[in-house]
Amino acid sequence: MLESKILQVEKKPKGLFLNLLKKVGKAISDYKMIEDNDRICIAVSGGKDSLSLLRILEERKRFVPIRYDLLAVHIDTDYSCIDPETLKEYFRKNNYNYYIGKIEIPREESQENISCFWCSWNRRKAIFETAERFRCNKVALGHHFDDIIETILLNLFFQGEISAMSPKQELFEGKITIIRPLCYIEERLLEKFAEESKFPLSAGVCPNVANSKRTFIKNIIRDLAKIDSKVKKNIFRSIKRIKEDYLL
Predict the structure, then answer these.
(1) 15: phi > 0 → left, psi -120 to 50 → alpha, else beta; which?
(2) What separation in angstroms does the CA of 164 have from each of 44, 159, 167, 171, 222?
(3) What pTM does this model have?
(4) Domain encompassing residue 25
(5) Residue 42's domain is classified under what CATH number?
(6) How many domains in the chain?
(7) Residue 167 domain-assigned?
(8) N or C: less crowded end of the chain, CB within 10 Å?
């Protein structure tokens, strides 16, 4: 009996994992992201962010009072960051419910035309179709704190609007709700967590990533943070502190 109790204690999350669980728990609570009997489709690209989200949401099921189901969904493309078979093996090893789909890239499309927008739009469409097929009412995306602040500046500079990624957003007249439970977590923590967790990450990346606008914005924020460490938090907070009297 004593040995059993010791093993249970050792399995409890601690350190960085516990820290991430708390941050995700706060985000879920602040935005009421997950409710009892939710069926949640998790978009799993195979990168550090989505695999971290999957593990964290699965772990929360052990101790939160609400009940929800998870379905890990990977949409394969020719530019996926992980081999689908490797991901399938990982899902099976960890007893995750999963589905793997495929997007066929038209042969007439050149690499230049397969932009970040093209990939994102088509993957998102496939994710929504899969969520509907498996009767999921929520879609969880692995966007983190840095993704959100980068999007704020991207929209400001290149779209001429003030907007961001919403932590929770209803679509299709409420049939599906997007949630972003990692919205309070910085990318550097997810990088460290992925390393500790030994996720089956691949070195493969999108061929357009080096020239993307998001990479450009990421570099700007990095340089600004060298001048003031509060820059990222200030950008994040700004979307909630709009002073309408000073707008046109």
Answers:
(1) left
(2) 21, 11, 9, 16, 19
(3) 0.89
(4) 13-145+162-205
(5) 3.40.50.620
(6) 1
(7) yes
(8) C
